[in-house]
Every structure is written in C-alpha cells, then in structure tokens.
From TrEMBL:
Region annotation (Disordered) ranges: 1-23
Signal sequence bounds: none
Source organism of the structure: Lacisediminihabitans profunda
GO biological process annotation, one example: cell division
Family: Belongs to the CrgA family.
Bilayer disposition of the protein: Multi-pass membrane protein
Coiled-coil parts of chain: none
Gene expressing this chain: crgA
Biological role: Involved in cell division.
InterPro entries: CrgA (IPR009619)
Stated name of the protein: Cell division protein CrgA
Length: 81
C-alpha cells in the first residue's frame, strides 16, 4: 500500500464568539466619536453665539441638549470593543 507524501494538518476547532466577545460593527466608532464631537460643537456654538444659536427657541436648554448628545457618545464607549 502506497503512502502519500502530503500530510494534512489537524483541523483546529472553530471558536464561536458569543455575547460580550462579539466585536463592534464598522459604523460604531464613527457614530460614537461623531456624537461626542456634535455635542461639543453644539455647546461651543451656543456660547460663541451668545445664547442665540443653534436653536433660539430652546434658550438655555441648548446646554442640556449638547450635554445629552455628548452623554450618549460617552455611553457608547462602555460598549466599545
């Protein structure tokens, strides 16, 4: 009986990632950093425009909107892998 010269490598078992080990989708980082930058820009525009922009009807609530957007971006950092 003839032996073949090619040796097959042992097949390693496939690792399946589940739960918290799954990497983030490609869009996750740009959205996370984008929200933080938009929130920061919102607050800066509010102060530079002397409380008239970005939404004049909100008046001082613009600060809360800016920090809210920033906060959502920072919350996303806890899920970043």
């Amino acid at each position: 009986m003839a032996r073949s010269n090619s040796r097959s490598k042992p097949v390693a078992p496939q690792e399946t990632r589940g739960g918290d080990d799954v990497p983030n989708p490609v869009w996750f980082k740009p959205i996370m950093f984008g929200l933080m930058l938009v929130g920061l820009a919102w607050i800066i525009v509010f102060y530079v425009s002397q409380n008239t922009l970005p939404v004049p009807a909100l008046k001082d609530w613009n600060i809360l909107v800016g920090f809210g957007i920033l906060f959502v971006g920072f919350l996303m950092t806890t899920r970043w892998r």
